[in-house]
Specification:
Blueprint (H helix, E strand, L loop, with lengths): L1 H12 L25 H4 E5 L4 E4 L2 E6 L5 E5 L3 E11 L8 E8 L10 E7 L8 E7 L13 E3 L10 E7 L3 E6 L2 E7 L12 E8 L19 E14 L21 H14 E4 L17
Antiparallel strand pairs: 1-4, 2-3, 3-14, 4-13, 5-10, 5-14, 6-7, 6-13, 7-8, 8-9, 9-15, 10-11, 11-12
């Protein structure tokens, strides 16, 4: 009887949120279609060389009161799959951004395209926020138009490495976590989609003015260094120098690309249970500037 009573308490009295919930299987794992690159095969230091270390194909970068660090792919791409397995630091990391992203800012300063995966640092006891974002041709009309979707992940990203990826094709951008699609950004027009070649970047830096709860909490260097680890680098697709017939890796078993019904189901689960912000649903935004939100 005591055992049955305990089982009843576990099954019916403990809130369901106490149990770890994981997304349904996407049924397809695009990361498995590419070989793993060593850091030096695909990337080079961009800044903060003294705050960067490579050991057995794992890259460690860190931020302290002196500087952060960043790296960049050795070549630009016009489409492709770009991923890395990342492990974040525990504890107080407010104000700190750990990023993996595509950009052509150096080629088009002030008028660049960018596709972001950013981890927004946090305070004790609160989860990291994973922010995805798309910028098209920089400020354009003088307004920086971000297209943010934010998530609290279904796991603790400080405990183990997890794989984060951007799949950029001529018709869509898909953000993936452990091969589970979490966001699809379709090409609705040439005005709302990046079409110029971009490089792949990673970095850790101080963004105290906005990173954590809109700048409420700042980087606190009593907790330095702030460390991020990257490994299992994947990069494949069409470089800026590839022939016109080159096509990037497909997001699904279909050569034409797109997501399967099973992948859409996994993405809907993530967005239903773990998305905490969607720019298209924000009533404070001027949606005349984001026509891709229109139905």
């Amino acid at each position: 009887m005591p055992f049955l009573f305990l089982l009843f308490l576990i099954l019916f009295m403990v809130p369901s949120s106490s149990f770890a919930e994981w997304p349904p299987s996407p049924g397809y794992w695009p990361s498995s279609k590419l070989k793993t690159l060593s850091f030096h095969e695909g990337y080079k230091n961009l800044w903060g060389y003294s705050h960067q270390r490579v050991d057995q194909n794992a890259l460690t970068i860190w931020l302290d009161k002196n500087t952060g660090s960043g790296f960049k792919s050795v070549k630009p791409f016009r489409s492709g799959y770009f991923g890395a397995s990342i492990k974040l630091q525990t504890g107080y990391t407010a104000g700190v951004i750990t990023a993996f992203y595509l950009s052509n800012n150096e080629a088009h300063p002030g008028y660049h395209d960018e596709v972001d995966i950013e981890f927004l640092g946090t305070t004790f006891g609160k989860p990291y926020t994973l922010q995805t974002n798309v910028y098209i041709r920089g400020s354009g009309d003088g307004k920086i138009i971000g297209r943010e979707m934010k998530f609290h992940l279904w796991f603790d990203p400080t405990q183990n490495f997890h794989h984060y990826a951007i799949l950029w094709s001529p018709k869509e951008i898909i953000f993936l976590v452990d091969d589970v699609p979490i966001r699809r950004y379709p090409r609705k027009s040439v005005q709302t989609f990046p079409l110029r070649p971009m490089w792949v970047y990673g970095s850790i830096w101080d963004a105290s003015s906005w990173a954590t709860e809109d700048g409420k909490y700042k980087a606190d260097y009593r907790y330095q260094p702030f460390v991020a680890m990257y490994t299992n680098f994947k990069a494949g697709g069409c470089s800026a120098f590839s022939p016109a017939w080159c096509r990037p890796l497909s997001a699904s078993p279909s050569r034409s690309g797109g997501l399967t019904r099973q992948q859409y189901g996994a993405m809907r689960w993530v967005q239903t249970h773990h998305m905490v912000y969607n720019y298209c649903k924000d009533p404070k935004r001027d949606h005349s500037l984001t026509p891709e939100c229109w139905h």
